[in-house]
Amino acid sequence: MKGKIRRGLRTKELVKSLEPHEIAVIVHEDIDELAARALVAAKVQGVINTAASISGKYPHRGPEALLDAGIPVLDQVGRDFFDRVDDGLEIEIKGGEIFAGGRCLGHGQLLSRRVIQEKAHLGEEHFNLQLGKFIHNTIEYASKEQDLIGRDLVLPEMNMEFRGRHTLIVVRGKNYLEDLNVIRPYINEVKPILIGVDGGADALRSFGYQPDLIIGDMDSISDATLKCGAELLVHAYGDGRAPGMDRIAALGLKAKVLPAPGTSEDAAMLLAYQLGTELIVAVGSHSNVIDFLEKGRQGMASTFLTRLKVGSILVDAKGVSKLYRQKLKIRYIVLLVIAALIPFFIYSFISPQVSQFLRLLYMKLRILIKM
Which tens digit of pLDDT belongs to each residue from 44-101? Predict the structure, then answer.
């Protein structure tokens, strides 16, 4: 394999600048499925990972998604390789070695399905250990944040009225694009308030929708979407620090700040709930252990408490696209055609003109057949 490389410490940011057929150089232990699919969408020729794409700590499908798309992965090349190369460098990969100008720059392990299966099996064996740590951390932090249920957030003044309306919250999670596509009829009919959590706002715009509100730390969203005219709300730490404001200021935009515990999607749900929304529909939300381990989080206390608080009006659309993958069967088409012809036949028997026309047509067909 030959090609130009492009490096990135954060995969979700690197995919924005990757050109088709480039070789992505990443530092990403346990590549999550969402990041893998983003690399596939960027049409990379291959992936060089300085870390272990699948470590065996827990089971996940990231590397498998890359191989399914025909993208080879050279694994565990080492961080020193990342630091010694520059974007645009022409390299050649032979087996597990990387060459440039005839000089070997590094080597790694070419991932195969056998290696992935072995690591996945190891991850299943280790999963109970990871689950135990995850539950312990969740309970520990939940006990510290339990007032999240009882108290309200200090909200800035918002430009829209939530009371009596539905709210759709879109997060960059597994199958979020597929799920968003399935519920388009709901969006078009009900016209809910549209909230994009960071990159979820890009997804809304890709489907032709204008986000009403964008909330997050603003690190995984395009400049064009930030400038689209939506109200901007930077998610801040409990002490008021809001690193996302630096990017907002650099773009010459204005935003409000929302200090809130937990994730940005938690903050979005709490905001909508507190402002009196009638129903919250969540797309792409993170709601299980694997989701959180893939994001590098060791617990889900805030998400657990948030869902306890807003659960009475929360509808999670995660995975809804899987309900609609049934292919259209031939018999359905035949039945549909028959149903459409029934009114025609009834009318032909009632109307003398149509009946005479059909008889004439029948006689002509008989004459043609005899000829």
Answer: 999 999 999 988 887 788 899 999 999 999 999 999 999 999 999 999 999 889 999 8
Total number of domains constituting the chain: 3
Range of the domain at 243: 154-297+307-323
Are residues 167 and 213 both part of a single domain?
yes
Same domain as 110, residue 163: no
What Rg do the C-alpha atoms of the chain give, in angstroms? Answer: 27
Taking the CA atoms of residue 360, residue 362, residue 363 and residue 368 in that order, the dihedral angle to the nearest 10 degrees is: 130
Q: Return d(Cα 183, Cα 82) in angstroms, integer.
A: 42
Say if 136 falls within a structural domain: no
Distance CA 45, CA 30 (A): 20
Kindly report the CATH number assigned to the domain that includes residue 22. 3.20.19.10
For β-strands 97-100 and 213-216, DSSP reports them as unpaired
> Does the structure show a pLDDT above 60 at 346?
no
Return the residue matching tokens 């016209």. Answer: 191
Pick from 53, 33, 56, 26: nearest CA to 111: 53
Beta partners for residue 74, in sequence order: 48, 110
Nearest to 201, CA basis, from 183, 182, 180:
180
Q: Residue written as tokens 């930077």? A: 234
135 occurs within a structural domain: no
* pLDDT digit string, tens, across residues 178-214: 889 989 999 999 999 999 999 999 999 999 999 999 9
Would you tell me how many other CB atoms lie within 10 Å of the CB of residue 81? 19
Q: Confirm whether 147 is domain-assigned.
A: no
Q: How far apart are CA 169 and CA 284, in angstroms?
A: 9
Short-list 246, 213, 217, CA closest to 231: 213
**Residue 362 structure tokens:** 């029948």
Range 180-209 burial, b when 16+ CB lie within 10 A, else e? bebbeeebeeeebbbbbbbbbbbbbbeeeb
- Which DSSP helix (H) or strand (E) runs through 280? strand 279-283
Place of tokens 């903050």: 267
Helix (H) or strand (E) holding 98: strand 97-100
